[in-house]
Amino acid sequence: MSRQPAHPVALRDTRIVAGIAALAFVAVLIGGAFLGLVIESAGDFSGAAAAFDSYLFRVVRFTLWQAALSTALSVVSALFVARALSRHPVFFGRSFILQLFAIPLALPAIVAALGVLALYGRAGYFAGLLTTVGGENWPGVYGLSGILVAHVFFNLPLCVRLFLEALQTVPADQWRLASQLGMSTRPAFRFIEWPALRQALPGVAGLVFMLCITSFTIVLILGGGPRATTLEVAIYQALRFDFDPARAVALTLLQILLTFAVVALLSRLGANTAAESGLSVAPRRYLSIGRSETILNALLVMLALLFVGGPMMATIAAGLQSDLARLAGERAVHLAVATSAALALLSALLATILSVSLAMARRGLATERGRKNRGPLLEYLIDTGAGFVLVVPPIVIGAGWFLALRHVGSVFAIAPVMVVAVNAIMAMPFALRAIRPAYDAASERHERLCAQLGITGWARLRLIDWPVLRRPLATAFAFAMALSLGDLGVIALFGSDTLQTLPYLLLARMGSYRTADAAGLALLLGLVCFALILLADRLGKERSL
Amino acid sequence: MRKTMSALISALALAVATLPAAAKDKLTVYTYESFTAEWGPGPQVKKAFEAECDCEVDFVSVADGVALLNRVKLEGAATKADIVLGLDTNLTADAKASGLFVPHGTTPALDVPGGWNDDTFVPYDYGYFAVVYDTEKLKTAPASLKGLVEGDVSQKIAIQDPRTSTPGLGLLLWVRSVYGDKAPEAWAKLKNRVLTVTPGWSEAYSLFTKGEAPMVLSYTTSPAYHMIAEKTDRYQAASFSEGHYLQVEVAGVTTTGAKNPLSGKFVAFMTSPKFQDVVPETNWMFPAGKMDKPLDPAFETLVKPAKTLAFSPEEVAKNRKAWVDEWLTVMSK
After folding, report:
1. Under 8 Å CB-to-CB from A545, ≥6 apart: which residues?
2. How far does the CA of residue B109 sit from the closest CA of chain A (Å)?
3. What's the CA gap between B61 and A204, in Å, rounded?
4. Torsion-angle region of residue B85: left (phi > 0), alpha (psi -120 to 50) or beta?
5. What is the CATH number of the domain that holds A267?
6. ipTM of the predicted structure?
7. Taking the model in full, what pTM does it have?
8. Kind of pairing, strands B121-134 and B235-238?
9. Which of A462, B174, B231, B249 is deepest in the core (most CB within 10 A)?
């Protein structure tokens, strides 16, 4: 290897080394999980093959069925609500509604599931009303109905925001033209709104389908019994209920196949897997809207508002009714809060470090390109490495390691490491999105200067990058922490009475039907996550000013 | 950043500070949740044994008996458990095959139906599974398992999952011993009466006492609790004409526990009157050994099974997976 001054940063660029290290970490984590699965199935191949029974196919069928129904319900109702909102770009409370619709994304699934139960459950706020209306005792929302309600609660607001964004891409000229031509509601929908919506439809539907197919917590809590079980929940049960490794392997392989198939399909449809929508000010409209349509639209928006706001209100109301003072004094709660805080902080730190390394390496490689031919494969790996994480659900990674580690020692002893690592890489794609644009922009400005002055490594990080990256790093950190705090996937597998996080404790309290305790804990967890997301959002916005 | 770091360090310090300090000799007992509950036998047993051994008893609890075995199998030889308490005769053959348990080497004076000659597991209590019902919600209780299977589907029952719970497994075996190969058909009918399948006994029973289900799968001895502790006859066990399935609950010493001298002491203590006195009115089962005090007369008023049903541990071990899978297939339809 020559050390020609013509390539001053090439191999000595610590950024690339850091990126490779981060990538290696992700690879080891995911690869190790796959290795665990392979070893397990190779050891007892007949067992894994025999696990493909009618139960398994029923689970797959239910997984697809509930995801399809959830998607259809969320997307179709969101089309109507988004259109209604776009027809009335200015009214009192509109921005409040849009902000409210952003909250479900920030709520941990377990909190939302509890909110749904507090409202529609057998002992929920609506049980009395529903019993009177239905004539017999309200059976509650366990099973498919509960799963659908919760999935729509999460995805309807997301779809509304994405569709609204699509509708706002319609140029004002078109509206002016429509107005000049005296277009009434129906042709305006057909020629102006529908084409915009139709374009966004496959992407939005695909995203929702993907989210529903990998939904774990909702199904675990609201599924209630073997009749309503998805693959992810079945993997968990095969490991923690039956302890049937062969079945766990079969289920995990199926889950991977399924998510890959769905993602492959989505990328053909051009799905927007970013799941983020910043709504700008709506353009001026030149359309006069009739009274009856206004009433209809108001009704639609009202219904959506009630549906989305209901479980949130129920969470708050039920939480306030619980014995918060006693909960606050309980040792188990203190322990869970401390454990959650420690694990979430570590995992957020790890997620941030990994993301920064990847962003830097990506940029370093991009500036290298043309001078060296080493780039393409590594660059491609870094680009896709983060996205790959989204395809392999945390339960699958957890299950693989669970199976591999049990040959080595106690899986419960390694639990904290697993929770931190898996939650960190789960948050990584989101953290990367906060960090990369900022780093790229900063690099654009400083790259040449640094090269000229020979500022590299630690000095560069401290003097040049840190001041610019501080805010986006904090955003990424807060977001990763919120995700990790609310996660139930990995801890459900690895948790035990020696390691309980807040969501795990919540699940345990629900399991023993101490619903009041669960409601109190849900309120606490929901508020903390909401505050973190709000913080992340605030920091992210100020940066761009 | 400095603030973040200090927050991180203090959180870590907190997490570390909560690790228990090693002081006295310790005996770790894995058991099920209702055993360690405030109202369960756990607290009294812990107190009584600690007074005798000058040691510390550490209970670790999981949802129910089958989950207990899964947990120990999962941890393998590295398990922290010295004693596993809460398996039943339906699981002993499976547990022995795991190679994780050692012979107890004692000959305790025991009195359980059908006698006792297992060299690895020692019984501490026994009972009969029964459908317990709320007399205020259900006027006529089913008089047979057939009556339960074919009865009014609007009257629900809360049952337990046989993959985690010994009562859940018990009902599975009960149905199997009455219906034989027709068991899946029976489950297909019974399924419509099942309100929910809970992972452990505690969850199902608390649903029942909260009034969410008029029936629950429990024991003939459960009404004794309501008679003695709550002075009410409201909850009764239904007597089934086909007979009732027997459960003998046992404990065993693990390979880890074989190295701990406290394990043997605990097994001896478990069959002694000090432990047995606690069993009937905390675990609400019949004692397996001699008691110092007489059994409360309420136990005399309970349903006496017309016939005792039980598979041998070997039969259960051979068929458990197939039968549970069969159940899962029917229940997931």
Report:
1. none
2. 34
3. 45
4. beta
5. 1.10.3720.10
6. 0.71
7. 0.80
8. antiparallel
9. B174
